[in-house]
Structures are given as structure tokens and as C-alpha cells.
Amino acid sequence: MKNRIEGKAYVLGDSIDTDQIIPAAHLVYSMTEPDERRMYGRYACTGVPNEQAGLPDGGMPLTDPEAWTSEFKVVIAGSNFGCGSSREHAPFALQEAGIEAVVATSYARIFYRNSVDGGFLVPFESRERLVEQIRTGDDIVIDVPAGTLTQMPSGDVFLLNPLGDVADILRAGNVFEYARQAGFIS
Amino acid sequence: MQGAGSVLRTGMGQTITQKILAQHAGRDRVAPGDNIWVDVDTLMTHDVCGPPTIGIFQREFGEDANVWDPDKLVILPDHYIFTEDPHARRNIEILRDFAAKHKLKHYFDVGTARYKGVCHVALAEEGFNRPGTVLFGTDSHSCTSGAFGMFSTGVGNTDAALIMGTGKIWVKVPETMRFVFEGKLPPWLMAKDLILSVIGDIGFEGGTYRALEFDGEAVFDLSMEERMTLTNMAIEAGGKNGIIAADQKTVDYVEARTDAPYEMVSSDSDARYLFEKVYDVSTMEPVVAKPHRPDNRAAVSEVAGTKLDRAYIGSCTGGKYEDFLAAAQILEGNRVQVDTFVVPASTEVSKQLREQTLGGKTLWQVFLDAGCKMGHASCGACLGGPVDTFGRTHGTEVVISTTNRNFPGRMGSKQSAVYLASPLTVAASALHGEITDPRTVLV
């Protein structure tokens, strides 16, 4: 896990379910073959209704339809992010698109766990709702040790909740590395 | 429509979920919030998440690593079966090769007599759901198995791969919310109405990180299939697991299907619940979840008359034998007014539809004569899937469905709109081409 995550924000609303993050029709692609796995980056968030894609204006795909990766680095969202299906393809698709962190007010349990155990991205909880305060395309900086998100160029600082128990797994890289370091598996 | 409000009880006892998790962690007791490693009795995966799980397992444990216990791994391809999609077909090949290499006896291959269909229903039919056990599955609706008095929940590929290699996984012990259904269920209500009411009451994330325990006379009056409809949709409130203590019905169902050991576990009388709510089912109404969220609850009477383009009866939550029996009672001798898709959850359900009769005809014939389109046992269009999936939406269809999710695009098209309802309500609505209260057609 990096100490500093910076880049452009991509803003979504509440209850973004995993069918919106990666529609089921695309789950057929290999997650290891390079020619196929990049499809997940292209199709990430293509299930989000157009008017809600890239708030506040909408109509902004996460990844350009002709591209494999996104210009955005951090997803900002409201509550219950990642609800629905247990598909690990969802945090994987965001990672393939180039997303390094999600900042939401709350998460669905399985998405949160998949993000951490697979080491795909860092799921931060914001103390306050940021969906109306940050616009898609804003430059932001996350200072992980300090637990802050700074909006540029305004310099406005927002607090993030401590990562808690899962920080050890995120620092290890994924649940396998964590289990190895704990001597649980060899 | 509800009875007593929520109360908080504080005691030293443990809930059924705590007790099962404690036993599998080698402890006398666990408390909500504890992070524990548990021994897994059953790991289930399917064609969507199985291949990537296998990929991670081989990456982390080695190409030739052994599965921790081949007899505890159940692979049930069910999602993308009846499609020409080459990638989907390739994924079945990956499962087939892995099952052969590891000599898995619980692989239920496509295109053979062993093919079952939707994993959550097949787990019950094949005797893998046993009271007191712990099951993890690479599918969020793995919570369905909790109807058998066991702990079951969904995980991603990474967690499944860890289990595949070690038989263990870490779990945070959940708080429990208890929902008590009292009274006698009227003939126009089904388990789907009860669970949509719960989700509507506590909200889409009202059960996040929590166990949802179902209790009360009306729950134990339900068949095992109907109980599975309750636990299936615990995840639609964000729940970690849904659970119903085992009773004689559970034992009869399980012992008819397996000789494997089980243990009946129940909550202590002084168990601590985070939340408790009592419903009187005799005063409840049929309900729907309006687009595009499962907690967007309305009484059927509030939305009656809404024009429909399509009806769909199927899935792990709404494609069991009794779901079709309920629908057939309404459709028998009538004609549907909108495209109506019938997709049995499993090959066993399909067989029952061809054997069991109503009014002198098989249920299969009842549906055909009513003008329904009949599909093969699988997940079908519940989750959209490849473009050639039977019943998948492609435009602005307004659908009423017995499935469990109505997110934007869930059944295929982002422009379609899905209402979730019981098989009775879906069948009544199919007959009129608009949302219809089953009480108006049940005689």
C-alpha cells in the first residue's frame, strides 16, 4: 500500500452495485491472460446509468470506450459502495482501469473484503460525504498515514477513517502475503 | 403491518451464528467483532468465479498443489451454460480439466446427466446443506444455505482460493438481527413477500456485516424451499448470512439426501441481538420491490395497473418447484398477456415440472398452454449474462420477476426496469399484462 495516492477523481453516487461496476456479460474474460484481462479496465463502470456516470454532470465514462485504462485514479462515492454480487471482478476491474483507491461513506461487505484480501485497491471511508464536494476531474491527494484527502488546488482537507484491522492485510499486499507473514501458510 | 417494534436484549448467551462459528474456530464462545479463523466444511464455486479462483489457487500454492480436501469442494456450473459465447464455454473447460486433475467427485458437469443448475438450489438437493456446518461460496447468494441451520456466506475468488488451499478462512463474527414472523401465512402471501418487507423496513444496507436470523411460527410453517427464499435475500439487505434454526422438516429433508453428519444448533434464550422485529403475517400484504433497488418496497395494491412488457419466473430465489406450483395455480387454464419466461432453477425442478400434475396436466404443460416460454435449468437472465441468454432484456422492457435483484442493467439492459415480486404476484400480473394483486385472481 502506497503512502500517497494522487490523481484525478471520478465521482459516483450511492449504492453503486457490482453489476454497475462490471456488468455480468463481461465476466467471461480471463483475469490472467493479458489480452483478456484488459477488457475489465475498458468495461469498468459501464453499467452505471449514463446520467450518473461522473458526477455532477454525468455522461463521463470511467474509461474511454476506445481505451484500456482510465485517466482517473480515485473513485469518490456515497454509501453502500459495491453492493450486490460477490464478483471479485468488480474491484479487479477498477484496478485494471487504473483506480488505486475508492473513498466512500460506506461499503457493502463482500466488495470491501475482496478489495482488501485481493489487494486490488484501498477502500477508504470518508468521515463526511464527499459526493457533492468533489467534482469528477478534480485533482486529489490521499495521504495514507495522515488519513487525509486533499482537494487541489483549493487545498480543502477531508478526513478519512482509520483502516483498522485490514491495514495489516493491505500493507502485506493481499491475504496470502498476510497469512505467510503470520506464519499461517508457507 | 408490523407487530411489536425493535427491542434490544442483552444477555450472555450466543446466537446460532456465534455458536456455529465458535465451534469451527475451536472455541467455546465468540463475540460479535471477533476476528477468527474457521474450518470450512464446504466450499462451493461455479463457472463465473471458479476459473479465476483456480487461477489464484495455482498462483499461490503451485500448479500441482492439492486441494485441501477434494471431497469438500463442490463445483456447480450454472451461470453461463446455454450460450454460444466462446469465453463462457472455455470457462467450463477449465472447470472440467481441474475436476479431472483433482478427481473431484462433486463436480456436476455441463452436458451430462449430472448437470444440476443453480448452485444454491443444487446444494440443498444434493445434501450439501447440513445443520451446524460452515459453507463458503463464490456467490453472494451463498447465504441461501442458512435455511438449513448452518453458517453460509459469499466470498470472492481470493478468499475461495485460500480456502481451496487450506480449508480455512478468517471471519469477523457478525452481530445478529432477529426477525420473528408470527401467525398463519395467508394463501396469497409467500416467503418472497416476507423478505421484501424486511429489506424494505431495514433498507438496502440495514443488515450490512450482520447475521439475519429468522424465527417464529410462520417461518417454521414454511417448507424448506420457502425458507431458502428468506435466507437467499439476506444479502439484499447487506447481510453476511441469513439463518433459520433446523427443525424436524430440516432433518427430514437432509436425511433423505445424505448420510453425512450434522448437528442441530439453536440460539440461546438469552442471546444478544442487535435488533429485533416481530411481524404478524396475517396482516401483511403482497409487496413488490420497485426499480432499481430491492429495498424500494411498495404494496402490490399501490402499484397495481403498472403496464408490463415481460414476466420472468426463475432463479435461486424464485425458480424452485414450489415457486412454479404457486404460479401454475394462477396460470392454469389461462393465457399470459405478456412474454413470460419460465426458467427452472435446477434439472431436478425441471423434472418435477414434467412429472407433477395440476388439473390433469403436468405443470410444464400448464405453462406451455398458458403461453409461457420454457427455458433450461440455469441462472438464466436473472443476472443478464451473455447477449444470447434466454429471457435477457435488450431494451426498455418493464419486467416483473421472481428474481432477487433489480439493479440498473441487472437483467441485461440498463434501460429496462425490473419489479421483484412473489411467484403468485408475477403470475397474476402476467395474466393481465400489468401489475396485479394475486388476491384478485386467487379463488
User: Are there runs of chain A of 5+ residues with pLDDT below 50, and where?
Assistant: none
Number of domains of chain A: 1
Number of domains of chain B: 2
Query: How would you sum up the major sheet of chain B?
Result: 5 strands, parallel
Strand order of the largest sheet of chain B: 17-14-13-18-19
Main interface: chain pair and counts: A-B, 42 and 51 residues
What is the name of the CATH superfamily of the largest domain in chain B? Aconitase, domain 3
The ordered H/E elements of chain A are EHHEHEHEEEEHH
> Proportion of β residues of chain A?
15-25%
What structural category arises from helix and sheet content of chain B?
alpha/beta
Radius of gyration of chain A: 16 Å
Q: Average pLDDT across residues of chain B?
A: 96
Silhouette of chain B: globular
Distance between the termini of chain B: 24 Å
Distance between the termini of chain A: 22 Å
What labels describe this entry?
heterodimer, A: 186 residues, Aconitase, domain 4, 7-stranded mixed sheet, B: alpha/beta, Aconitase, domain 3, 5-stranded parallel sheet, 4-stranded parallel sheet, 15 helices, disordered N terminus
